[in-house]
# Entry
Amino acid sequence: MTFGGFFPGWNGSMGYSTFLCKGKSYTIMEPDNLRNPYLSGKLTAFCAVAVKPAGHGRLEVIYRSADAQEIRGIWSLMPGHRHFRLDLHFVAAKPAYYSLAVTAFNGAPRNAVSNVQLPPMFQYQRIPEQPMMLPSAMMPQPVSITERKQGE
# Structure
C-alpha cells in the first residue's frame, strides 16, 4: 500500500483494463483502479455452504471458495446487544498477505436511493465511482448512511 496521492493506493494492482482500437487490443492501468482495494491482489469469493447452531445465540457458518478453501465463521449475538460479532478462522495455504472482507448488506441501484450521507471529504454526498479504502486518520466521521425510497 502506498500514499503517493491523497488516498491510499496499491503498487502492482490487478486493475488492468483493455480496449480495442482498429482491431488491436490495448491494456492500460486506469489511475482510479490503483485506489480500489478489491483490485490490489487476487480476489477469492467465499460462499456460505453450511450452517449449524454453536451454542446459545451462536451460529457456525462454513464458507467455501471455488478452489475448495474454507473459512469457518462464528456469528454471535451477545445478550443485551443489537449487533452481531463475527469471528473468522482461516488457515492460509501459503505465506502471503491476506485481507478478509465481509459484506452483510444488500446492494441497491442508485435510482432506489433517496439520500446519502458520507464523510465531509466527499462533501457529504459525492459517491466515488468505485470502492476506496479510507483510513480512519483521513475520516474523522467514518460513517456512510443511505436512505431508500421504498420503505427500507
User: Anything to note?
Assistant: The chain has a mean pLDDT of 81. The radius of gyration is 19 Å. DSSP finds no helices and eight strands in the chain. The beta strands are 16-21, 24-29, 47-53, 58-64, 70-77, 84-90, 113-117, 145-148.
